[in-house]
Amino acid sequence: MAIYALVDPMDTNMIASDVCINMLVEQLSKVSFEDESYKKKISDNMQQIFYETENRLLQMTFDHAEEKATLTHSNDITAEKCLPSLGEAQSGAFLFAATVTQSYVYIAYVGTIRAFLISNNNGELRIGDNRPQYYHAGSLHTIDNEDESLRLRNLNVNLEQVRNEGLDNNHSKFTRCIGKLSEKLLSSAASANDVNEARCNALICEP
After folding, report:
1. Considering the chain, what percentage of its residues have pLDDT values greater than 90?
2. Neighbouring-strand partners of residue 98
């Protein structure tokens, strides 16, 4: 079994990898892989991890933004830079974790940006400039994505109104803030022939 950190391009990759992976390892240490029910246990544990970390990471983001705004003069344009991060935080942008067994890749993911597995070389994480290298070609989960549109239609959201007018006075189209947290959580098993396949191919996990 190997642990792969999934990272978020929204400049919160260290929080995501440290917090989620540490909690994932702690939870997995309680799972016996000799028991056939371990697959469901992993799924349940990943769900629990994200319930526990969602509020913690959101609070960290809000605290950081509040501190930045407090330390910056109100007339300074720099203070406004914290606002986009607050908006992204409300849409659940940065929770990722995964584990790879011999035949399955288990991924837990909540996000505004589609996440890709970290790349590695012969089982070792590839590091550049003291940071893991990852597939950066993500795209925002906006109403223009088919998967997000389907999710919103199931929630009876008026897609045309959102597309034309946005969600608020800022005409925001970041729709991940719509819906219950449990509906945004995903813990799934992506089939892989072996660990080598997982190493060579980016496995995409979307809400």
Report:
1. 0
2. 4, 107
